[in-house]
Amino acid sequence: MPAKVQTPTQTQIDELRNLFNKKYEQNPPEVPFHWNDLDRIRNADSIWLRRFLEMYDLEMQVALNKLWETCIWRQEYGAYDLNENNLVKEYLHDGVVFAHNKDVDGKTLLIFRTKLHVKGTKDMDEVIRVVVYWIERIHRETNMDKMTIFFDMAGTGVSGMDLDFVKRIIETFKMYYPNTLNYILVFEMAWMLNAAFKIIKGFLPAKALEILKMISKKDITQYVDKKNCLASWGGNDLYEFKFVPEKAQRPTALTVISNGTLPKKAPRTPESPSNNEKKVHFANNNRMYAGSEMPECERGYQSLDPASAMLRISPNDNIYFNRGENSESVIDLTCIGKQPITYKIQTTAPEKFRVRPRCGYLAPSETVSVSIMLKQDYHLGESPKDKFLVMCMPAPVGIEPSQQSMSEVWKLKPPSGGDMEQHRLTCNYRGSASGASTPGQCVCGQAGGRIGGPDEGIASGKGSNTILDLSSHAKLLESQLRFTQILQCITLVFLLALCVAVVYLWKTQLNRMSGCIGEEECSAAVAGNCPGRNL
Question: What contacts 24+ positions apart, CB below 8 Å, involve 262-266?
């Protein structure tokens, strides 16, 4: 059975709720939290609050800080609003990750078929969005019950063992879904991946190691009943994955929060459209740029009629970051039209950047400076997959020009609105001979901030340092793993050659011994000692 955890009392749950409500009223976030998250916290016996207290051993202040971080991340990431319409459909339908059946404790299996995943062939940020979608979907369908991760590694080779992919999955659960896992099952892992698995174990917290189980066809029924085991696992289930859209219709209408007051429950309107503008992947206007090069003509705003432009951005094509810590860049937004506008900034990787302010109101000729900080421990890789989208539209008449009101306006804005203006920017590093990187090349290093946390000083320094150390050595360990595998192959060849040599020498020795016996018999016959001759 999974390891036991300290069970919080109802008094402790109420205390955490009251601390959260007090903080929300006295120091509200710049953008209101999603009503669904606030609704979870208000429940008398909140499963969510209970999970945070269990994960952090009933330490009230730590649980509060982590809960606050998670609410900010969920609001920026748009976790609750992910659906099949705003995800990369190819990743939803390829069967690398999906939910199916239950374990022996009745917990849903979140299955990862690693042999179908090839490292470096997909946009990792979009893949993680699909993973978060399945986690959220399971929580909706099971009322936030626990789940079991099932890594199906049968037939997985070196190309399918993507340490960055596994690390991102583990970090997502560790930081934003506390005490959510019932088991972590690793099925039929090849012996050649043992070195890589040791690296993965280093990413796991102590509590996760207690529920980590290495299994094979011989003992899988200890954790998954045979009727719930797929045929490829040696079970009776002949299921073949095919993506089925979620049937539940989820409300997305939000209530404007003003003066730090907690909202009442949002109206649950089944026909409310889903908000898919939390994280942009440049799929609007029937174009998709996730994981691919953005065409030169798409960098910056290309207006067909410059006279009708509403917003000017400086710089208008690239956002530059310095190497090292506390890397921050500033862009200026200026309303150049004759009427007030509201703007909103989105990014393909909200977990990597802190943007302040993310949305707001601009009167004609007004300028606002937006700070964009690259969080510590994150890097963008070699391809320009991390981008920003700045959108603007005429501000509604009669609405208070506050950031909270503008945030509500954008949440209710249909994604296909024809009055919206868009500007796209890519990320670059300063440091080339000309003072800028090659256009379109997105490379960043460590910077200020923290992993997953929008506010400084909240997360545990020890945990951040551990993840940073593991990240800095991941590539080195991967190269060592490849070297070890090559060395193992050479050793096998050498052993095979040695075996052949031993067999050859053994046969040669036998032949010599047979020859010696024949010569002795002949000598005996010549000497008259041969029994046949006496006859």
Answer: 262/21, 262/24, 262/25, 262/38, 262/42, 263/32, 263/35, 263/38, 265/35, 265/39, 266/35, 266/36, 266/39
